[in-house]
Design goal:
This protein is α+β, with helices and mostly antiparallel strands and 143 residues long. The protein has 3 helices and 6 strands. Helix 2 crosses helix 3.
């Protein structure tokens, strides 16, 4: 019997992993940051894309190979936000006021005017939080 685990299920297992304040750094986060060759030794570097890449890598899914959140706009199949589903969809958000930066995480559903994201570097941890739907730049299906 082969177990089926999707990206959201696996990512949920990491909820609660967080940065360590001060000069000590969480080795799990540093490993995620280094997955694609970045020479990073701290957990203060933005790591939302590193977390998404790590989960995709573990499941052998398409990934961006980049620490830039917006790099996920070039990965997977385009899905309209209204057709997003929990499992293999990532949501790419803008990050005002800087139009060049962004945020990425796994789609966790909608609440009224927010999109819920399971992602890394949310409050310095892996967590599920809501963002305004107006910030959605794109949704991509990794499977």
């Amino acid at each position: 019997m082969k177990l089926q685990v999707d990206a959201f299920d696996l990512a949920q297992r990491f909820v609660g992993i967080r940065e360590v304040a001060g000069a000590v750094h969480n080795p799990q986060i540093v490993a995620m940051l280094r997955l694609d060759g970045a020479d990073i030794a701290d957990d203060e570097t933005p790591w939302c894309s590193a977390f998404a890449n790590y989960i995709a890598w573990l499941l052998r899914l398409p990934r961006s190979h980049s620490l830039a959140a917006r790099s996920w706009l070039g990965v997977g199949l385009v899905v309209t936000p209204s057709n997003a589903s929990v499992g293999f969809d990532v949501v790419i958000l803008d990050r005002p006021p800087n139009p060049a930066s962004g945020h990425v995480g796994f789609f966790a559903g909608y609440d009224n005017t927010t999109v819920r994201i399971l992602g890394g570097n949310q409050g310095n941890a892996v967590s599920i939080i809501g963002f305004p739907r107006s910030r959605i730049l794109g949704v991509r299906r990794l499977a």
